Amino acid sequence: SSYNDKDFSFRVNGGTGRVPVGVGRKRMRIVVTGGAGFVGSHLVDKLIKRGDDVIVIDNFFTGRKENVKHHFGNPRFELIRHDVVEPILLEVDQIYHLACPASPVHYNLLDFDSFEILNCDYKTNVMGTLNMLGLAKRIGAKFLLTSTSEVYGDPLEHPQKETYWGHVNPIGVRSCYDEGKRTAETLTMDYHRGANVEVRIARIFNTYGPRMCLDDGRVVSNFVAQAIRKQPMTVYGDGKQTRSFQFVSDLVDGLVALMEGEHIGPFNLGNPGEFTMLELAGVVKEVIDPSATIEFKANTADDPHKRKPDISKAKELLNWEPKISLQEGLPLMVNDFRNRILNEDEGKGN
Ligand code: NAD
Ligand code: UDP
Ligand code: UDP
């Protein structure tokens, strides 16, 4: 696989170069909510490159204009600052609904006692998804929800198949996210059954890559940033809990295959390679800085002990599987992280 550092376009096994909209396929207009975020901005790159028109809706809660600024000036790209909790009127063919404050540090910024906080995960997941489904229903657009492996909670089944109903604490600190996405899935199926909206549901497993939020508390971004800053990597608990890490270009390919395919889902989209946090720290050490050290910290409540997708359904029905291993993917995010960390330090006058 090769990787273009400048515009983060990926070419895997001869893969996804610039493809003009061919004869027989009409150019579509596509909304990406959360399109200024990590996953959303890579999706936007792929859709624009493919030749479609893209409208990004984002309130910049965790996303950044920088992630999409290379499209500014392109008449096929539009950026709307808007909170999906509020209704919006648009005319489009497809809606990729990603908007959601999605990382542990950001949960903690929120004041759960106040109903005035618009960025509460639960409220965004419920009202944002409802509005996007209402929009899809009114204009007959296809709707794709980015749900999460967190719907499985602290799973009692391993690896997780789409048929597993999950093990979630409904009143825990993570429940705004877990239950928010579970409700979003319910709404999606409601609009499908009740209003004939054509829907797709992706259950995304831990994903990493360039443009991930720095310091948002996710483990890959933490370890990579810590290794670059020559700080110890913070391993929570005993570090024996597991996750499966997917490179962002694999996810984006999966999302597009799902949207374009015939099947509603839900589909697990993740890389089945399973690592303990200690093993992850080992890989970061190996590929980024052999002198990197680790430091143990107390773990957070309700932390799932293990997680690994069973992706047989996506393999069979979407003809999709991830191509980039952790060892191949981590180096692809290092330059982006280094540059942003450098700019941050310069900004501080260091
Ligand atoms: P991200 O935080 O980088 O992107 C989310 C985007 O949504 C940001 O640009 C943010 O500003 C925007 N947003 C948040 N609330 C909004 C609101 N009320 N109105 C409009 N925009 C809003 O996160 P990401 O990793 O790119 O995640 C994208 C989607 O994928 C999310 O729905 C997330 O739940 C899902 N997901 C991601 C992962 C992962 O590992 N990255 C795993 C599972 C699921
Ligand atoms: N909605 C929207 N844009 C549209 C259509 C609907 O934002 O183009 C919102 C609408 O304001 C409502 C939600 O989507 O809050 C659900 O719409 P629906 O028509 O399904 O429900 P209703 O308005 O009948 O309660
Ligand atoms: N984690 C860690 N050190 C960190 C951040 C996270 O050891 O600096 C652990 C965390 O306890 C969890 C795993 O890494 O077991 C994945 O955490 P993350 O927040 O990235 O994703 P999620 O828990 O949502 O899968």
UniProtKB/TrEMBL annotation:
It is a single-pass type II membrane protein. One of its GO terms (biological process) is D-xylose metabolic process. GO terms for molecular function: NAD+ binding; UDP-glucuronate decarboxylase activity. The keyword Methyltransferase does not apply. Residues 32-331 form the NAD(P)-binding domain. Its EC number is 4.1.1.35. It comes from the Eukaryota. Keywords: Decarboxylase, Golgi apparatus, Lyase, Membrane, NAD, Transmembrane, Transmembrane helix. It is found in: Golgi apparatus, Golgi stack membrane. Its cofactor is NAD(+). One of its GO terms (cellular component) is Golgi cisterna membrane. It is an enzyme of class 4 (lyase). Pathway: Nucleotide-sugar biosynthesis; UDP-alpha-D-xylose biosynthesis; UDP-alpha-D-xylose from UDP-alpha-D-glucuronate: step 1/1. Belongs to the NAD(P)-dependent epimerase/dehydratase family. UDP-glucuronic acid decarboxylase subfamily. This is UDP-glucuronate decarboxylase. It comes from Solanum verrucosum. The chain holds residues 94 to 443 of 443 of the full protein.
